[in-house]
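User: tokens in, sequence out, please.
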């Protein structure tokens, strides 16, 4: 029997939504091929729901074997403890070095920059993300809020309007836009924004 036969069976079980049954099959395969990074990665994905720490450990092993594989880096960044902001930032930066067109990583680095008190870096990351994915509503909202927090009225106003073009019934954006305009003396425009709340 070739390695492909039990691997095919493990993948079928995993794809059928039964990762717990796939885990021992992946582990058995790894006894034969301990240096196979794809198997480490697949085992990590199967472990995510039941043992996140073990999943992260397997992803680290996969990355040690294949440190420039974008998919491994992407999933490692998705699974890393969000409290470990330096570790997450390093993983996201490594992933972007491999795949610079990945807009969600740019956005996440922007949010980490906000947490680190670096709004200029956050603004740059959000701009990069929106070049790659112009209609992404999460990035549009965060960019507008960042501008509003910095007192950049016109940039924030434009940002909220761009967001509302994508999600016109979003109450938070309309409230934020109305409050921003009211604070800065655009009373009529603020009333118009509030009047459209549904």
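Assistant: Sequence out:
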């Amino acid at each position: 029997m070739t390695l492909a036969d039990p691997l095919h069976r493990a993948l079928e079980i995993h794809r059928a939504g039964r990762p717990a049954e796939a885990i021992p099959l992946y582990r058995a395969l790894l006894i034969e091929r301990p240096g196979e990074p794809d198997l480490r990665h697949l085992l990590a994905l199967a472990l995510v729901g039941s043992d996140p720490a073990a999943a992260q450990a397997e992803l680290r092993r996969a990355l040690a074997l294949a440190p420039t594989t974008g998919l491994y880096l992407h999933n490692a960044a998705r699974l890393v403890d969000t409290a470990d902001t330096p570790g997450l930032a390093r993983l996201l930066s490594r992933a972007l070095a491999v795949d610079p067109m990945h807009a969600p990583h740019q956005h996440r680095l922007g949010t980490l920059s906000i947490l680190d008190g670096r709004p200029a870096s956050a603004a740059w990351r959000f701009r990069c993300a929106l070049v790659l994915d112009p209609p992404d509503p999460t990035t549009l909202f965060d960019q507008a809020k960042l501008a509003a927090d910095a007192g950049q009225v016109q940039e924030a106003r434009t940002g909220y309007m761009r967001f509302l073009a994508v999600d016109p019934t979003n109450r938070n954006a309309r409230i934020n836009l109305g409050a921003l305009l009211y604070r800065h003396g655009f009373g009529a425009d603020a009333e118009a924004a509030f009047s459209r709340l549904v």
